[in-house]
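Annotated sample (chain length 92).
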Amino acid sequence: MTEDHALVVFDEPPLVGRAANIAAWRGYVERFPDYRIHPHEIVEKGATVAILGHTTGSHLALPDDEEREIAVLWGAEIAGAQVCRWTVTDPL
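Output written by the structure step:
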């Protein structure tokens, strides 16, 4: 990930900076060790990758079968072979 990497999640303020993003994800994974991303479809176009799928074991604290019903769209923007922006969106 780039040094000025930005994570944009739904309606939260962006989290900017490589170190800040690494620290945030470490904390998230420590709190939710069963968190998994389950991709359904991955599409690449130029320097952008879109992933449609669902998660399980997240902060939503739902049973896996209920969480599987919630679609998530992730978008990665690439610059110089590194992710510079990671966006998480509710596609509905």
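Annotation: The radius of gyration is 13 Å.
Annotation: The longest strand covers residues 36-45.
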